[in-house]
Design a protein that fits this description.
mainly alpha, Helicase, Ruva Protein, domain 3, Cyclin A, domain 1, globular, Rab-GAP TBC domain-containing protein, GTPase activator activity, Rab-GAP-TBC_dom
Amino acid sequence: MATSPRSVDTISLCSTVSSCPDRNGFYGGFQRTDKPKEPLSKAQIIAREKKWLYMIDNWSFLQIRDRCRKGIPKSVRPRAWFYLSGAYLLKKKNPNIYKELLEKPGNAHIIEEIKKDKHRQFPFHEMFLDEDKVGQIELFNVLKAYSIYNPKVGFCQAQAPIAAFLLMHLPAEDAFWVFVSVCDVYLEDYFISGLEVLQNDAGILEGLLKKTCPPVYRHLQKHKVEPLLYMTDWFLCAMTRTLPWETLLRVWDCFLAEGIRVIFKVALVILGATLNRHKVRKQCNGLCETLEVLRNPPEHVLDEDFIINNMQRLNLRVEDFQIEHTRQKARRAKQKAQEATAAQNHSNTNTFSRSRGSSPTNGSNSGNITVVNVNVGDGADVDTTAPISIKNGSSNSGHRP
């Protein structure tokens, strides 16, 4: 049976690790590649680098976007990402913040979670092989600094591969500011508890799939394959744990230039190319079989040229994303209103039942129920499954707001 990319990196080291790293620093894992890169002439490399250095100093979005789609030269990529993401402005505005954040102790619980998670990121890459390697040390620093910088988010496990990925290309402080931009702008509110934005984007992806590849959309609907079952890792980790290395670099070139729409397009290409053939869909005669295929797309589907070329061929306009976003926002607002109405009706029913069943003393306090609201400070441990307490009632209601 095929092995998903995520599980590949947990296989025994002795069976998958080479004695020397590839050109990107990988000793093993699914992102290691021994395929030689098609060489460019020295004159071509210098010409591309000069174009990029000129564009960075003379910003034009349309020109930059088109160039990003062709791929950023490896030597220029760190600087280009630093500028594309707006990180250079953040660093300029906050010149000493990163060092100050590192000197702060941080939330003890979050610090412990980061320590548990740091060794799991790209374990086959030369930067992250050992705990005392500079990669794991800097990864801890970046994640800790961000958890203090944005306590609303703190730390989410899905952030770690993004931070590690950036550290492979940028100095720690620059990587931190690109990471801040990615988490707070590109993937805004993705890492907040409840994942409401991700759920909304799941609906948008489903709507766009219906437009771009109806047969695949119908297949997923038929077998009740919800988008969150296959796209959560793609979106939360911005494809860092899904795509082969060369493809990932090209996708991130576009992602930092054009934003989250690029992740949507990559997801649509993977879905369409993996399940577009009737023979494949026929073999996937259930939810589990379909998910297995989606988690292990054919190798050619994840090839950099295939992904980039088919992204650009998708018949999608910016307006299509806006229409789906508005539609999903309205749908979720309607759903919330229905849930609120149902909860209110349930509460009223409970109140009426208690009022009818109470035994007032001397005619006073007949069925009056007062919910006690408790304001909990940051960091307090709260049992959210416990029933709320009630004054003047014979017992807890068991109902949570």
